[in-house]
Amino acid sequence: MKIKILGGICLLAFFAMIYSCQSDAAIEYSRYYSAGAIVYQSHCQNCHGDKGQGLNGLIPPLTDTALLKSYNNKLTCQLKNGLSGKINVAGKEFEGTMPATDLSPIEMAQVITYVTNSFGNKQGLFTDDQVQTALNNCGK
C-alpha cells in the first residue's frame, strides 16, 4: 500500500516537472490556443462548424491548410471587415457574406491561432502584435 502511494506521488512529481519545463513560447501558444477555442465557439462555430467543416456549398470549411497559410494576414482583415463575394476553398467555390466582427486584436490573435492550428492545420502562434500589423495594412 505504501509503495503504491509513493509511486503515485513520484508519478505526480514527474508530470509536474515536465509541465514546469515548458518554454515560455509553448506556454504562450497554449494560452492563445485555449482562449481561441472559446472565441471560436462563441463567434465562428455556428457557421463554420465544430470541426471547421463549413456548411455544404454555403460556408467554406477552415480545413484547407494551404489557403489558411496564404491568407494568414488576410484573416485579420476578414475578421475585422467581413468578407463578401466569391472565394475558392479546396477546389470548391463559395459565394456569400461573412459579417464583420467586433473582436479585439487579442481575440483575433487567439482565434486565428486556434483555427490555424486546428482541423488539420499546424501553423503556430499568431500574436496580437501580428494582428495589429495586419490591421494597419488592411486595404493596402
CATH superfamily: Cytochrome c-like domain
Q: Numbering strands along the chain, what is their spatial order in the largest sheet?
A: 1-2
Terminal Cα span: 69 Å
CATH architecture: Orthogonal Bundle
Low-confidence stretches: none
CATH fold naming: Cytochrome Bc1 Complex, Chain D, domain 2
Count of DSSP H/I helices: 7
What is the percent of helical residues? 55-70%
CATH class: Mainly Alpha
Number of strands: 2
Order of helices and strands: HHHHHEEHH
In round numbers, the mean pLDDT is: 87
Task: Describe the 3D structure.
This protein is mostly helical and 140 residues long. It has one domain: Cytochrome c-like domain (Cytochrome Bc1 Complex, Chain D, domain 2). It has helices spanning 2-20, 24-43, 45-48, 65-70, 72-81, 105-115, 128-136; strands at residues 83-89, 92-98. The protein has a two-stranded antiparallel sheet with strand order 1-2. Strand 1 and strand 2 form a beta hairpin. It is elongated and about 65 Å long. The termini are far apart. The mean pLDDT is 87.
Properties at a glance:
140 residues, single chain, mainly alpha, 10% strand, Cytochrome Bc1 Complex, Chain D, domain 2
